[in-house]
Amino acid sequence: MLIAAGLLPLLEQMISNSEMFECVAALYLNLSCLNEAKLLIGSSKAVHFLIQVLQADNEGSSCKYDALHTLYNLSTHPANIPFLVSSGIINSLHPLLGSPSVTEGIMWTEKALAVLINLASSQAGRKEIVLTPGIFCGLAGVLDFGEPAEQDQAVSCLLILCSSDERCSQMVLQEGVIPSLVSISVNGTTKGKEKAERLLRLFREQRQREPSPPPSKQQPQQVESDPGRQVTMESKTFHKSKSKKFGRTLSLIWKNKSFSMYQC
C-alpha cells in the first residue's frame, strides 16, 4: 500500500537532505523486507544512497547498519545483483571484513559476509569479487581470527567462488588458508567442519587434475675428441702409408734386379 501510494519517489527526494539519512535508511530497511519492493528499490537511486551511507565516516552506527541490512535484503533478489555490483557494493563491504566483529551490538562482519555470499551466487558477482584487490586477504583474516559463525560464512563464500573458477582457488591458496581450514575442519562448528573439508577436498582434486610437467629430453652426449689421440692416430696412419710405399719400392727394385740378371 505504501509503495502504491508513491513512497519510493518521496524517499528519493528525501535522500538529498543529509539530515534525513537515518530516517530514510530505516524506511528503506522496512520496505526491503517486502518481496514486491526489493526489485523496485534495487533498481532505484536507493542503492547508491545506501552504499554512500555505508562508506560515510560521519554517519552513526545504527544508520550504517540499516543501510547494510537493506543491501543484504536486496541481494537476496538475484535480479538486483548486477546493479548492486556495478554500483560498487563490494568495495564498501571489503573494509567491514577487517573491522571488529561486534561493535555496539552490531555484527558487521557476519552481515557483510552474508551479502558477499549472495553476490558470489551470480557470475557478475563472482567476477567483481575476484577483481577486488585484497578481498581474499580479508576473507583469510576472517578464517584466522573470526568468530565461529563468521568462519562458517567465510568458508562458504570461498567454496562458492573456488568451485566456479580454479583461478580463484590459486588466488585463495596464495593467502595461505590451508592451516586455517584444517583447524576449522577439526575445531569448527558442524557446518564449518563440513564446509572446510569440502574446500580442502576441492583444492586437492583441482591439484590432481593439473597436467604433470613433460619429461625433460636428454641431449645426446657428444664425445669430445682427444687431440693427443688424434695426433697419434694420424701419425700411425702416416707411418703405415709410408711403410707400404717403401715396401712397393723394394719390390720393384728386386723385380728389376731379377730381370737384369736374367738378361745377363
TrEMBL record:
Q: Which stretches of sequence are listed as region Disordered?
A: 205-242
Query: ARM repeats located where?
Result: 45-89
Q: Output the PROSITE patterns linked to this UniProt entry.
A: ARM_REPEAT
Q: Which Pfam families match?
A: ARM_PUB
Keywords in alphabetical order, please. Ubl conjugation pathway
Ranges of residues in domain U-box: 25-208
Q: Sorted alphabetically, which InterPro entries does this protein's record hold?
A: ARM-like, ARM-type_fold, ARM_PUB, Armadillo
This protein's source sits in the domain of life called Eukaryota
List the Gene3D superfamilies: Leucine-rich Repeat Variant
Q: What is this protein called?
A: U-box domain-containing protein
